[in-house]
Amino acid sequence: MEMQFKPIQLPGVDTKRPIVIAGPCSAETEEQVLETAHDLAARGIKIFRAGIWKPRTKPGGFEGIGSEGLLWLRRVKEETGMYVATEVATQYHVLEALKYGVDILWIGARTTTNPFAMQEIADALKGADIPVLVKNPVNPDIELWIGGIQRIYNAGLRRIGAIHRGFSSYDEKVYRNAPQWHIPIELRRRLPDLPIFCDPSHIGGRRDLIAPLSQQAMDLGADGLIIESHCSPDYAWSDKNQQVTPEVLDNILKSLVIRETHTTEDISDLRNQIDHLDNDLIDLLAKRMRVSREIGQFKKEHDMTVLQATRYDEILGNRIEKAKAAGMDGDFMKVVMQAIHEESVRQQMTVLQNK
Ligand code: PEP
Ligand code: MN
Asked: Measured from the CB, is residue 202 less than 6 Å from ligand 1?
């Protein structure tokens, strides 16, 4: 399906990269919202975020202040002149947010995962002209992400953006949600005029990762950043480990190096993409080796030989066919698979030799 998007232009907001959205994970109290907003506004932030309804993984935590907080956002607008953004997950949220004059809506990762919820939101948005940012689904499924965007588009909205907030995984991890940069890169390739925001707070889950992740996003040509900022991060009611004060945020933003050309024709951008893709390849290979070692452990416990020849032939044949179908040379894939197999065998042998 062909989609043509309009840029997220707001009067008074510079369209120069990055467009910055900042504010607390959650609106907690009227004082916390206003103190944070005034500090951010004084530092030049033009778009304020705050979660009013919070999708929490487990019950019992703070699940958001609800509609009352929309009055606080209205005060933020009146007192600071900033635009305000919040997350919507149901028809009720959309109607409430529109009623109270929220300027930008975003859809959370857990919601994008559910087509019923996305359709309900899209239906509630019919006829509205408001920018909507769609976060990636929690699982690394680009089709589900694009499908969610299509539902909003089909409701008649054109100022749509995507937010890359990383993907959950079971592995021991540096990141709260693995960035898997190849997915937003592919989204840019598939929908070149769709504005893409990066959410380093939810990718990193840690304050110290916000700056390097923001820089990576900028190097990959992201249009904007959405960053969690709180007047007293250590006392935040949700996501405290990843929130920074407006002052720290300001320093992070000032430290970013923004390379001006970011079209895909630009060679440095393409080289950056290659660097990130190679990093992803190395991560994937490391995961594959870890699984190999687990297989080695299993074989050791069950007295099996390391080399199971029929299994190897099967893998080789199957991967070569897949590579050919994806437009690569069969002999090339054979060499790659042989090298990977050699290293896997070596890793399994070390497991077997470890008494
Ligand atoms: C948020 O932005 O506070 C949020 C809940 O994000 P996500 O949907 O990415 O977890
Ligand atoms: Mn959060």
From this structure: yes
Ligand 1 pocket test, pick from 28, 87, 118, 180 with the greatest ligand atom count within 8 Å of Cβ, gives: 87
Render pLDDT for 186-197 as a digit per residue (tens, 0 to 9): 999 999 999 999
Distance 34 CA to ligand 1 centre (A): 21
Q: Which of 26, 43, 30, 19 is nearest to 108 (CA)?
A: 26
pLDDT in tens, 118-168: 999 999 999 999 999 999 999 999 999 999 999 999 999 999 999 999 999
Please list the residues that pair with 227 across neighbouring strands. 22
197 DSSP assignment:
E
Phi/psi of residue 59, nearest 5 degrees:
-70, 160
CB of 233 within 8 A of CB of 207? yes
**Token pair for residue 131?**
């920018």
Q: 24: Cβ below 6 Å to ligand 1?
A: no
| pTM value > 0.90 | no
How far does residue 26's CA lie from ligand 2's centre (Å)?
7
